[in-house]
């Protein structure tokens, strides 16, 4: 017996078992058609006198990935999830969920409505709704705490983290884990329990196990969640919903769950987080201005890779490569550095393996002081000092040593990738792979292509990034690429605000309340003030003998703040020296404390330069720092350095701590209103005519003139704009 057409298939197996198979590739999401199918098939199984038990599974070894996000924001049709799951739970025949692959979100909620859950050992389970700005609103917040207790439920629901089948068994989420075919096991099992009472199997009827220190627990969790949420409302709502499960009867708790969900669903934050979800996927569909694109560019296989230079970055990159299963040749010329790197890399690999319960991959790495050792590799990532002459020399050596066709990648953070490519005999083999520190942890990778990079080189770097678990974004070559280029106006505004009367504390607090994990000055102390100083020196912006007065703050025709340089001259490089924009207990310590010296220094600096301090509020800090950064984002789009606003937003969310619930800078600009961003930029530009970064970008003007279209329509405007430039 078989019903085709709907997105759930019904078969009778083993004579007496109704098997319902969800069919909606790739993850069997609960679309309207799937829900309708489940409702119909359950009804059919329950009304068929021959059927003694029911098993629900998903096709292609995957139970169910949850709600169909594409349906969000549309007029939802089809049967709603809650009554569907309630009806399954109320059934008078045992319903068993056979969980293979993943049971996530609505998928797990469906499983929790079943009377039994049997998982394959490789299955993963979780309620990730919070990462989309939502909560599990098909009874997840009410059933899970009743099943596994409040602390475990809070942990899973507020973080959205996935658990393995073994962990799920330990928590009590599933009843059995099997290495065999979970559907077969579930079918046999369902027959073995057919006819038994189901009274003790309906989770909604359970009393939520309450810890004795109930109030203290919720208070503590709420405090922690608020702190780590950095302004995101979904995790807080999740705690409130679980609290309802603990204190209210099921039906009342469900009402609370729905109420909280309704608030989240219509919030801008949920829209922002869902946008991020899709943007993260969209960046994989890269395209280059030449017309080359992801579908038509085949990556080269990479079995063996090399890393040149084992400093901060090279070590992390080596770890990231080894963890993907590649053989790695790691080259470092300094013997002492090589020894230290070996130890550091092994340590990182061992710790990572321990965390994941696997064996470390130390034997995949060979170390050498000699560049000749890389002759057989398929791809090289260079991470030597940020020095063009040195990198040029290294690239020439690489071209001579490597077998033909080896891809040559540079991890430069700011040097010209095209220029480097032009110094090699095969510029088409050169791309930038810009990692972020620490390279084995940070999710972002900018893949930088030049006009001569071959589509295959880009495709290979993008695919390697993916294998390393990175979110890879293909971007064009320019000073600072996308991320660091946009950071320049942001940093500059922060310095100017100090000159005008703000303190590092005030600026940081405004940015941290906005949702950044760290304000600009705490961040600068962490990464080291000397890095920017070196770049500014190279750019001849730093004048050794600084005169006072206005002219001292004009360099190369624009307003310039020498504040960072002055701190560096005092040896204040940030955390590493124990002093920077803040003070620290000792060099290397991480807890920033206000520094009275810095405050007097600012007072004295302003007086020396005839600057009259004024009161600056959070609003101005946010507008000046963020709108200047966003304005540069529009320039990047206009220049074609990023293919679309999603690329920029993903870079900022994954690499620069931009709060996900605000969607990324370009999405945020749309939320604020492009006309408002433009108006504020014009306002600040009038007040600071000597700051080119505040000059509104013509693409922004054009978008506003065109009625501020929604972000998914910007690409059309950009294309038209570029063709007219
Ligand atoms: P680092 O100073 O920690 O390490 C550079 C290493 O390269 C040193 O161990 C040095 O001995 C070695 N080296 C120099 N010449 C060599 C040669 N010819 N062959 C083999 N090894 C050689 O520098 P870091 O911070 O790791 O930076 C490396 C590159 O990564 C730079 O281009 C930098 O701009 C870029 N980058 C740095 C980031 C950071 O946060 N530190 C972030 C992203 C990119």
From TrEMBL:
Domain 3-hydroxyacyl-CoA dehydrogenase NAD binding intervals: 304-477
Record keywords: Fatty acid metabolism, Isomerase, Lipid metabolism, Lyase, Multifunctional enzyme, NAD, Oxidoreductase, Peroxisome
Catalyzed reactions: (3E,5Z)-octadienoyl-CoA = (2E,5Z)-octadienoyl-CoA; a (3Z)-enoyl-CoA = a 4-saturated (2E)-enoyl-CoA; a (3S)-3-hydroxyacyl-CoA + NAD(+) = a 3-oxoacyl-CoA + NADH + H(+); (3S)-hydroxyhexadecanedioyl-CoA + NAD(+) = 3-oxohexadecanedioyl-CoA + NADH + H(+)
A GO BP entry: fatty acid beta-oxidation
Pfam families: 3HCDH, 3HCDH_N, ECH_1
Pathway as given in its UniProt record: Lipid metabolism; fatty acid beta-oxidation
Domain of life of the organism encoding this protein: Eukaryota
Gene3D superfamilies in the record: 1.10.1040.50, 2-enoyl-CoA Hydratase, Chain A, domain 1, NAD(P)-binding Rossmann-like Domain
Chief place where the protein resides: other
Entries under InterPro entries matching the protein: 3-OHacyl-CoA_DH_CS, 3-OHacyl-CoA_DH_NAD-bd, 3HC_DH_C, 6-PGluconate_DH-like_C_sf, ClpP/crotonase-like_dom_sf, Enoyl-CoA_hyd/isom_CS, Enoyl-CoA_hydra/iso, NAD(P)-bd_dom_sf
One of the record's GO molecular function terms: NAD+ binding
Annotated EC: 1.1.1.35, 4.2.1.17, 5.3.3.8
PROSITE patterns to which the protein is assigned, alphabetical: 3HCDH (PS00067), ENOYL_COA_HYDRATASE (PS00166)
Subcellular location as annotated: Peroxisome
Domain 3-hydroxyacyl-CoA dehydrogenase C-terminal: 480-584, 621-707
GO cellular component term of the entry, any: peroxisome
Subunit and partners: Monomer.
Family note: Belongs to the enoyl-CoA hydratase/isomerase family. In the N-terminal section; belongs to the enoyl-CoA hydratase/isomerase family.
Record-given protein name: Peroxisomal bifunctional enzyme
């Amino acid at each position: 017996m078989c019903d085709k057409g709907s997105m759930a298939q019904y078969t009778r197996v083993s004579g007496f078992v109704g098997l319902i198979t969800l069919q909606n590739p790739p993850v069997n999401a609960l679309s309207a058609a799937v829900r309708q199918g489940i409702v119909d098939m359950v009804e059919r199984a329950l009304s068929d006198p021959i059927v003694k038990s029911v098993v629900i599974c998903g096709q292609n070894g995957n139970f169910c990935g949850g709600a169909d996000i594409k349906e969000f924001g549309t007029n939802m049709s089809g049967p709603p999830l809650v009554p569907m799951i309630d009806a399954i739970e109320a059934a008078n025949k045992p319903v068993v969920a056979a969980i293979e692959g993943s049971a996530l979100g609505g998928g797990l909620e469906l499983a929790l409505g079943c009377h039994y859950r049997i998982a394959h050992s490789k299955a993963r389970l979780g309620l990730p709704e919070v990462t989309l700005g939502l909560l599990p609103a098909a009874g997840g917040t009410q059933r899970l705490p009743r099943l596994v207790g409040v602390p475990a439920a809070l942990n899973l629901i507020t973080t959205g983290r996935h658990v393995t089948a073994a962990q799920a068994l330990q928590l009590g989420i599933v009843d059995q884990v099997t290495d065999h075919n979970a559907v077969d096991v579930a079918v046999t099992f369902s027959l073995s329990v057919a006819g038994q009472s189901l009274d003790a199997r309906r989770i909604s009827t359970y009393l939520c196990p309450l810890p004795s220190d109930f109030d203290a627990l919720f208070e503590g969790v709420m405090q922690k969640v608020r702190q780590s949420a950095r302004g995101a409302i979904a995790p807080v709502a999740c705690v409130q919903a679980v609290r309802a499960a603990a204190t209210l009867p099921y039906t009342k708790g469900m009402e609370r769950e729905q109420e909280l969900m309704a608030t989240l669903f219509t919030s801008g934050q949920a829209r922002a987080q869902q946008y991020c979800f899709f943007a993260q996927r969209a960046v994989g569909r890269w395209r280059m201005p030449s017309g080359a694109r992801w579908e038509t560019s085949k990556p080269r296989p990479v079995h063996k890779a090399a890393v040149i230079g084992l400093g901060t970055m090279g070590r992390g990159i080596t770890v990231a490569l080894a963890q993907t299963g590649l053989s790695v040749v790691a080259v470092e010329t300094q013997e002492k550095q090589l020894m230290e790197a070996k130890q550091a890399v092994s340590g990182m690999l061992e710790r990572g393996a321990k965390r994941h319960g696997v064996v470390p991959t130390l034997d995949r790495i060979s170390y050498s002081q000699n560049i000749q050792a890389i002759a057989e590799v398929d791809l090289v990532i260079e991470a030597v000092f940020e020095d063009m002459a040195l990198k040029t020399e290294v690239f020439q050596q690489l071209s001579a040593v490597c077998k033909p066709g080896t891809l040559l990648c540079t991890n430069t953070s700011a040097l010209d990738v095209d220029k480097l490519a032009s110094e090699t005999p095969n510029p088409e083999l050169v791309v930038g792979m810009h990692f972020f520190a620490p390279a084995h942890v940070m999710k972002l990778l900018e893949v930088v292509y030049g006009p001569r990079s071959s589509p295959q080189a880009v495709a290979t770097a993008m695919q390697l990034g993916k294998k390393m678990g990175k979110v890879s974004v293909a971007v064009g070559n320019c000073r600072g690429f996308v991320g660091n280029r946009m950071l320049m106006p942001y940093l500059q505004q922060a310095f100017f605000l100090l000159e005008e009367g703000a303190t590092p504390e005030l600026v940081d607090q405004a940015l941290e309340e906005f949702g950044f994990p760290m304000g600009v000055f705490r961040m600068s102390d962490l990464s080291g003030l000397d890095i920017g100083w070196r770049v500014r020196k190279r750019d001849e912006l730093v004048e050794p003998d600084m005169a006072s007065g206005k002219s001292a703050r004009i360099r190369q025709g624009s307003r310039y703040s020498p504040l960072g340089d002055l701190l560096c001259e005092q040896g204040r490089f940030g955390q590493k020296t124990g002093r920077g924009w803040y003070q620290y207990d000792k060099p290397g310590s991480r807890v920033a404390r206000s520094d009275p010296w810095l405050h007097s220094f600012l007072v004295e600096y302003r007086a020396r330069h005839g600057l009259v301090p004024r009161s600056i509020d959070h609003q101005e800090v946010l507008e000046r720092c963020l709108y200047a950064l966003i304005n540069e984002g529009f320039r990047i789009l206009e220049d074609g350095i990023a293919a679309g606003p999603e690329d920029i937003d993903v870079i900022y969310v994954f690499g620069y701590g931009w709060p996900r619930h605000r969607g990324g800078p370009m999405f945020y600009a749309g939320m604020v209103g492009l006309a408002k961003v433009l108006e504020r930029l014009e306002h600040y530009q009038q007040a600071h005519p000597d700051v080119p970064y505040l000059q509104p970008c013509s693409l922004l003007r054009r978008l506003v003139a065109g009625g501020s279209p929604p972000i998914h329509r910007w690409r059309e405007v950009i294309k038209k704009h570029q063709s007219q430039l």
